[in-house]
Design brief:
By secondary structure, the protein is an alpha/beta fold. Helix content is about 50%, strand content about 10%. The protein is built from 51 helices and 21 strands. A 10-stranded mixed beta sheet has the order 8-3-4-9-7-6-5-10-11-12, with helices on both faces. Strands 15, 16, 17, 18, 19, 20 and 21 form a 7-stranded mixed beta sheet that branches. The chain has a two-stranded antiparallel ribbon with strand order 1-2. α8 runs parallel beside α11 (about 360-375) and α13 runs antiparallel to α14 (about 430-440). The chain starts with a helix and ends in a 5-residue tail after the last helix. Residues about 1-25, about 515-530, about 555-585, about 775-780 and about 1205-1235 have low confidence and may be disordered.
Length: about 1450
């Protein structure tokens, strides 16, 4: 069970971090077809009744398209055709894939669905069967169903904005699906998106079309589905075709043919269902998928769609300039509601819908006026995109701003609204909208309020949002204050190489614990089976190298086991890593470092760039990232992934180079200190060590790094000393006490003295003493070296050690040569014994180098590093050969063999001499070229050997017959062909050069080759022409082709390496400097005395080794802080210079120029549109004035005609010329416009199917004539008593017309009294807070003010007794007389009618500190949640009427709402 749990853990770790790739296959599975057949249904007519034509049914289909039983039913008779009765549901027979053909060969999914299909089933079909990812936004595009003209600029803006918002947010676009009207424009936008090579991903475009009006739908029918169905795009048909640019089709079927608008109901239900689904990755409860309606063009149906959508709180974006109803709404939206009159709508309809205007009835226009007024009143849901202005920029911005505006209006609390908007912006990945709409002066964010957003942005890989959150106050230290946050981030890593390695480490760790703890600790084991920072630290240390310490301290729980039972466990866990001592107090945390590391291990370049800029130790961070990435690339098996890692490693190496170059140019000494400073954030290592381990040759080759290495190479000697002076002082050391050789301390003192002298000179010339004092350097602590220190510094300098070792090595070779050539006796001579002692000292030095490990690599890695070096391999080979030769030399029978081995060993020692020249700037790079050419020559020799052996064996076989002497066979088949390449031509292949005395007939002479086959004339029998031709061909390929190929290879290698040899030489120079820095001063053979001293000191006396501060320095805390601050300043300068260089590149200039040209073009087009719009408005105004003038002249003419009887007639009114309002409007109605009721005029009467008569704003007052007013009569089922119309005339709503007569759902005609009780108290919680008592409305699931209908305002509503409880009800009833009257009068209620209305009395009952008040408060506390105290604020969640009452109460208590 434990193993299974561990495996499941690893699967969970990997699966939780990976993103599932959803692939749609063109080949259907049996499960897919079965699911559709079982869940998706269509509709068909089951009763044929003749319609207008003989062979056509009332459903619109012909007789042949009906099933047999439908025709039989018709013969037997079945009554009048009814769609509810004679249409049935059966399994669908049209689903699968559509192949539209053409150039793009698009294939889309489709299904024929019934109008009664559940939206849940449709959503399941989309997401589970068609594998479409759930949307983050739903864009419903509606408008003109017929083809309409759209201005080029507006068309481009709409298509570009629609695709951009769909692409960035992961939205679904829903349209009508046909190749006409607005659907065609959406399809063209999708097509242009796919044709654009700069964009990637799929735009989900869903077409909901009516099955009965689709052209060529017959090809889509197949009982088992069509995979694919070849659909012809015949645009000349009477019926519309499907648009080939949509990705999915839902063809809605109601069983009829030729009837439009069938899909509207299913579309609205589907949109409502999707809008109720939770947004994919949102943490906030209640954040659902937002829906937005985009409107272009359109007619009366479009207006109804907009009105219905806005009643459902769906925001709408209307494109001005798209034509027809969209322009009507856009023009009316810019006016107050009071100015949107019936006459204005008449004019707008006549202007924008001129072709259809004559068919509009007055009643319809009145209804549309009312709807347009209601639409304008819901301004938080209406957004007009005016293409000629800059209000929204682009359509995508307008769409998202509309959603944010609606979200702000619907939020019950300010913080909740901002949080919901930010979460939507993060899901949509629209940082531009977040910057302009969310992070404004109105929104005040704390760092803790944005931690969830930072986590979402990190996990969702949204680097731009991370930058935005950091700019707006997110503190990384607070964000990562808990280690659990960082652990959760590692658990959410995407599927990558590091996660797989980390999962294996977790599994191995769980396995070790399982074996130790056994069964009694399984509970603790189950709790710890997850990624911890210890696992991360171990894996990072593995990638960085064991020379580093863990970057995260181990958890304290690992050190709190029972010491008696689990001592071995503690040792095993601590011993599982390389031995090191971890000082928990020294473990430092840098949150930017933690997130930078988290981004690097997943190869996230943009995220890593952000956090690298925040890192405290940026150079070390960049080099550490380089090392980690190169190590992962080396261990990974995926070549593409390794290439990405290598590229990212080079990128961060360039960052390290840039920052350090800036540091070195600003301050050389501090830059050198930065290289050898121990970084507590990166495992107690140094920048220089990280660069060397990461193989960052370019970084090591920097002048600043090389200056540091040169300084270490020279020791305390000045780097300006010529070599000849140093070598002279090595022999004549008394010269060091003169100025012949310069020491660095003396050089520093000299420079300081020169600076002081310059300052004094300036002071004497200018006479300004104060300024010179301010510029004078601080006194230094550098002291001059004494005599003994000068001598020690001379001979301890790595440079001097190297020169002595050169002399020693030449002396060793000279002695070795003398022994081999002149003094190699049977009994070793003194010179030979000295040679052995000399070699022993060399061997002891090699052993010391192997075990010398100041960086803590460990013996295993140190041995690998040692053997990886070519010169060390030669050292080992020379020593091994010398030992073998010495053993052979000391035996009599192998004496000469031993000498031969020693002679060969001498060659190896001479080759080792090349290492001496590697320090030379001239010869060092050439040695690197030679090494590369040797590798090329090795592969070339393999190719050459093929030709040599081929020719040699053929030649030997032709010339010599059955020679069994191996040495002569090898000579003839290999050696002689090899010599031919260099000009040697054997004489036995040519008759003229053949000499019988130079060979042996029967191969009896061991010193002569065997003669070739001879004939009876004792002449060679081989064909001379063949051997000569073979020789010519061999020379042609071997001498001319292959040798010239070798020359070309060498030339290519030289050219390739020449540019990098200096860089490689500088990189390899470090190891030599490090070797001689740690090497004892005495050269061999005297070095053995130093080894003896080291052995006694370290082994016998057990003293710690002396640590050098040249390569590793731990700075004091204050100095380190100053150095890191300076480094951060240099980093900022580097980033600024990089940004300036990037902005000045040719590519950037071209992009900026293109953007400016595009901006100018758009501006010119906008100005042209504005000028044309202004001209059209002027012409319209002129036309109106002409019309009014003609009307006035007509009135004058009629008045003049009636002059004789003028005195007996009423004076005719003068027409109003400029207001443009209906003549029935009065001044009184204009004054009362702002007070007209709105809820009482809603089209749908609440809790009924009754529809009100439309009452526009201007027709509300009873004083205004409204001849077309014909309201319906309605009494609810609870009010069965009918009232005489004469009785109803006695009651007239004081607020004006409502569109319905009767009592409605109210109790009686006239005023219906209602009491709202506002119970308040003051809560002292550090500040004086006014709270009100809210009760739970179980029907609406909301908290409301306690209240209800009453017969008299002096009594409480009887219904409150159930809500409040009898005791509390009675106590409040006793105090009702103490209540303060806040408001009394008419209330705009949705239940109001023309003859019945609600009048509300609002009473405020304030509970003070009296005993009675405290009793009431205690009763509220015992209500178990049905009663709640809530703070009085503007965002209280109450309805508008109760919010107004609460505002009045707040004013009474001197509080602002």
């Amino acid at each position: 069970m434990g193993d299974t749990g561990g495996s499941q853990l690893i699967q969970n770790l990997t699966l939780s971090a990976s993103t599932a790739l959803k692939v749609v296959s063109l080949t259907p599975t049996f499960h897919h077809v079965t699911w559709i057949r079982q869940n998706i249904r269509k509709k068909e007519c089951c009763f044929f009744e003749k319609g207008a034509r003989e062979d056509v049914c009332m459903c619109g289909y012909s007789k042949s398209e009906h099933v047999d039983d439908a025709v039989q039913t018709e013969d037997s008779g079945g009554g009048t055709w009814d769609p509810h009765t004679h249409v049935r549901e059966v399994p669908t027979d049209a689903f699968g894939d559509i192949d539209f053909g053409g150039l793009r060969q698009t294939t889309t999914k489709y299904a024929r669905v019934s109008t009664e299909t559940s939206p849940e089933v449709v959503y399941q079909l989309m997401t589970e069967q068609w594998k479409v990812s759930p949307p983050n936004l739903l864009i419903s595009v509606t408008g003109g169903a017929k083809n309409f003209y759209l201005k080029t600029r507006l068309k481009n803006v709409f298509q570009r904005g629609l695709i951009k918002v769909a692409q960035t947010t992961g939205a679904w676009i829903i349209t009508g699906g046909t190749n006409t009207g607005v659907m065609k424009h959406v399809g063209q936008a999708v097509r242009d998106y796919y044709l654009s090579s700069s964009m990637q991903g799929q735009i989900v475009t869903i077409g909901l079309a009516t099955w009965g009006v689709i052209h060529n739908k017959e090809v889509l029918v197949h009982s088992q589905g069509c995979f694919p169905a070849h659909y012809p795009m015949d645009v000349k048909g009477r019926l519309p075709c499907l648009d080939n640019n949509h990705t999915h089709f839902l063809l809605v079927d109601d069983g009829t043919h030729g009837r439009y608008g069938v899909e509207i109901d299913l579309r609205s239900r589907l949109e409502k269902y999707i809008s109720g689904k939770n947004l994919g990755h949102c943490k906030t409860v209640g954040v659902t998928i937002p829906v937005v309606l985009v409107v272009l063009d359109g007619g009366a149906g479009t207006l109804n769609t907009i009105y219905t959508a806005m009643l459902n709180d769906t925001p709408c974006v209307v494109l001005e300039g798209s034509g027809r109803m969209a322009d009507v709404i856009a023009h009316a939206a810019g006016l107050p509601v009071s100015q949107v009159t019936i006459s204005l709508i008449h004019r707008l309809l006549k202007k924008f819908l001129s072709l259809e205007y004559d068919n509009f009835t007055d009643l319809k226009i009145i209804e549309w006026t009312k709807k347009i007024q209601d639409i304008i009143r819901m301004s938080h849901l209406l957004t007009v995109f005016r293409g000629g202005g800059d209000s929204h920029g682009d359509v995508d911005v307008a769409i998202l701003q509309a959603l944010f505006k609606a979200s702000r209006a619907s939020a019950s609390q300010v913080v909740e609204g901002w949080r919901r908007q930010l979460e939507l912006a993060i899901v949509w990945n629209r940082v531009d909208i977040a910057a302009t709409e969310i992070f404004t002066d109105e929104s005040q964010w704390k760092s803790s309020d944005l931690h969830w957003a930072m986590f979402s942005a990190l996990v969702g890989n949204k680097p731009q949002f991370v930058s935005l959150l950091l700019e707006n106050g997110v503190s990384l230290r607070e964000f990562l204050h808990s280690e659990d946050t960082l652990c959760d981030l590692y658990k959410q890593l995407p599927n990558c190489f590091f996660l797989r390695k980390l999962a294996k480490r977790v599994r191995a760790s769980c396995g070790r614990r399982r074996r130790v703890f056994a069964a009694r600790n399984r509970v603790r084991e189950a709790q710890n089976q997850c990624i911890s920072l210890t696992h991360v630290s171990d894996e990072v240390r593995h990638l960085l190298g064991n020379f580093t310490q863990p970057i995260y301290p181990p958890p304290t729980m690992m050190y709190h086991f029972n010491m008696e039972e689990n001592t071995s466990l503690s040792r095993s866990l601590s011993g599982s890593q390389a031995p090191l001592r971890v000082d928990l107090a020294e473990a430092q945390r840098d949150p930017a470092r933690d997130l930078f590391l988290w981004a690097v291990v997943q190869k996230n370049k943009e995220m890593a760039e952000i956090f690298w800029e925040q890192c405290t130790d940026c150079v070390s961070a960049a080099l550490a990232a380089c090392k980690i990435l190169k190590k992962m690339a080396e261990e990974g098996s995926d070549a593409d992934e390794a290439a990405v890692m290598q590229e990212l490693a080079d990128y961060f190496e360039m960052h390290a180079i840039g920052v350090f170059t800036q540091c070195y140019s600003s301050g050389e000494e501090r830059a050198k200190k930065l290289l050898v400073r121990v970084s507590p954030f990166w495992g107690k290592t140094t920048c220089l060590r990280l660069a060397l381990e990461a193989n960052c040759k370019s970084f090591v080759a920097l002048s600043g790094v090389q200056a540091l290495l040169t300084e270490i190479w020279c020791g305390e000697l000045s780097v300006d000393n010529p070599v000849w002076r140093v070598t002279t002082c090595m022999i004549f050391f008394p010269l060091i006490y003169t100025s012949f050789l310069i020491y660095r301390p003396d050089e520093v003192i000299q420079k300081q003295n020169e600076n002081s002298e310059d300052i004094r000179t300036v002071a004497s010339v200018t006479g300004c003493v104060d300024r010179t004092k301010a510029k004078s350097p601080a006194p230094t602590t550098t002291k001059s070296l004494n005599c003994w220190s000068r001598l020690v510094c001379l001979y301890s300098s790595p440079q001097v050690k190297f020169y002595w070792n050169i002399v020693s090595y030449f002396a060793f070779l000279f002695l070795f040569a003398v022994v081999l050539m002149m003094d190699f006796q049977t009994t070793p001579s003194p010179a030979e014994i000295l040679l052995y002692v000399w070699l022993f000292s060399v061997v002891s030095e090699e052993v010391r180098q192997l075990f010398y490990d100041p960086d803590g690599f460990g013996l295993h890695k140190k041995a690998r590093m040692y053997i990886r070096e070519l010169w060390n391999i030669l050292d080992v080979l020379s020593i091994v050969l010398f030992i073998i030769g010495l053993v052979f030399r000391l035996t009599i029978e192998h004496f000469y063999a031993g000498k031969i081995i020693l002679c060969i060993d001498f060659v190896v020692f001479c080759l080792r001499l090349m290492a001496i020249f590697s320090i030379s700037r001239t010869l060092g790079p050439k040695i690197i070229i030679v090494r590369r050419m040797m590798m090329d020559m090795f592969f070339f020799m393999f190719l050459l050997s093929i030709w040599v052996v081929a020719y040699g064996v053929a030649k030997q076989g032709i010339l010599i017959h059955n020679d069994n002497r191996l040495e002569w066979i090898f000579r003839g088949a290999v050696y002689e062909p090899y010599l031919i390449i260099f000009g040697y031509v054997p004489t036995n292949i040519d008759y003229s050069e053949f000499n019988l005395e130079s060979c042996s007939m029967n191969a009896t002479d061991p010193l002569k080759p065997k003669c070739p086959v001879l004939n009876e004339n004792q002449t060679p029998a081989f064909p001379e022409w063949l051997t000569i031709i073979m020789l010519c061909v061999y020379l042609l390929f071997a001498n001319i082709l292959l040798l010239n190929l070798l020359i070309a290879i060498f030339n290519f290698t030289f050219q390739e390496v020449q540019d990098n040899t200096d860089r490689i030489w500088k990189f390899q120079r470090y190891e030599l400097i490090r070797e001689y820095h740690s090497r004892p001063s005495a050269p061999p053979p005297f070095i053995i005395l130093s080894h003896l001293y080291i052995f006694i000191r370290n082994v016998i006396l057990c003293r710690p080794p002396i640590k050098s501060r040249k390569f590793r320095t731990e700075l004091p805390h204050t100095e380190e802080e100053e150095l890191l601050s300076w480094e951060a300043l240099m980093k900022d300068r580097y980033l600024l210079s990089t940004q300036q260089q990037r902005s000045q590149t040719m590519e950037r200039c071209i992009v900026d120029t293109a953007q400016k040209v595009t901006s100018i073009t758009d501006r010119l087009e906008r100005e042209e549109d504005i000028r044309s719009a202004i001209l059209i408005k002027r012409l319209a105004r002129l036309e109106e004035q002409v019309f009014q003038s003609a009307k006035g002249l007509q009135w004058i003419m009629e008045s003049l005609k009636s002059i004789p009887g003028l005195a007996g007639k009423e004076e005719q009114p003068l027409p109003i010329l400029s207001t443009g309002k209906d003549t029935s409007e009065t001044l009184e109605s204009e004054k009362e416009t702002e007070g007209f009721h709105v809820k009482a005029r809603q089209f749908q009467y609440p809790n009924s199917k009754v529809t009100r008569f439309p009452v526009p704003e201007e027709k509300v007052p009873w004083e205004v004539s409204f001849s077309s007013y014909m309201p319906s009569y309605y009494n609810s089922e609870d009010n069965l008593e009918g009232l005489d119309s004469k009785v109803l005339e006695n009651y007239r709503n004081p607020g004006g017309r409502t569109g319905i007569r009767g009592r409605g759902s109210l109790m009686h005609p006239g005023p219906n009294l209602h009491v709202d009780l506002v119970i308040t108290r003051l809560r002292d919680s550090g500040r004086c807070v006014l709270e009100f008592l809210a009760v739970e409305d179980k029907k609406q699931q909301l908290m409301v003010l306690p209240g209800g209908p009453v017969e008299s305002s002096e009594h409480l509503p009887s219904g409150l007794m159930t809500t409040l409880g009898k005791s509390l009800y009675e106590r409040l009833h006793e105090k009702i007389a103490e209540g303060i009257l806040v408001f009394e009068g008419y209330v705009d209620d949705a239940r109001n009618t023309d003859n019945a209305w609600v009048e509300t009395t609002v009473l405020n009952l304030h509970l003070d500190s009296s005993e009675d008040s405290q009793d009431i408060i205690n009763m509220v506390a015992c209500s178990r949640g049905s009663l709640q105290w809530q703070e009085v604020s503007c965002k209280n969640g109450l309805c508008s009427d109760q919010s107004d009452s609460l505002r009045r109460v707040a004013l009474l208590h001197n509080r602002n709402s």
